[in-house]
Amino acid sequence: MVPVPEYSFLILLPVLRQIYQTLGSKPAEQGGILGIADGVISRFYYDVEGLCSERDYYPDIKSISKVIKEWGNEGVSFCGIVHSHHPSARLLSSKDIDFGRAILRMNPSLNSVFFPLVFSVADNTEYEFIPYVIDEKSVSIASIRFSNQI
Ligand SMILES: [Zn+2]
Q1: Least packed by Cβ within 10 Å: which of 14, 75, 107, 112?
Q2: Is residue 27 in a domain?
Q3: Total domains present in the chain
C-alpha cells in the first residue's frame, strides 16, 4: 500500500510559474516565501535581497517581514519558504531543517512549515519542485495539487 502523505497543499498554477521564472531559472541558491489564503497557496514573494552563496540561502528578514505584514492586511498568511539547491543536494540541509523549526517556534499558529526545494534549469538540470514539509518531529514530502483559480 502507498503511504498517504500527512500533509497536502493546493497551489495556484501562477505561483508555480512565478517560482519557475525566478528560482527555477537562476543558479542556486535563491529563495522566497509562500502565502496561503482560504487553504490555497496563492502568493509567492521572490526574495531578491536574500543572501545567496553556493551552499546556502539566507532570507532577507527585513524585506520578508514587510511582505508578511502586507499579506496579513490582505488576509494572506505566511506558510512556507521555497529555495533552490544545486542538483546534487536533493535533501534539505540540517541548517534548512533547524531554520524551519525556528520558524515554527516563532509562529505558534503553524504546526508545519512548507519547505519546498527547487532545482533550476540554470544549473543544467530539469526544473523540479520537491514539496518538503517540516514539523517538530519529521521532514516529509507533502502531496500537492494545482489549481488555476482561487
Ligand atoms: Zn537549503
Answers
A1: 75
A2: yes
A3: 1
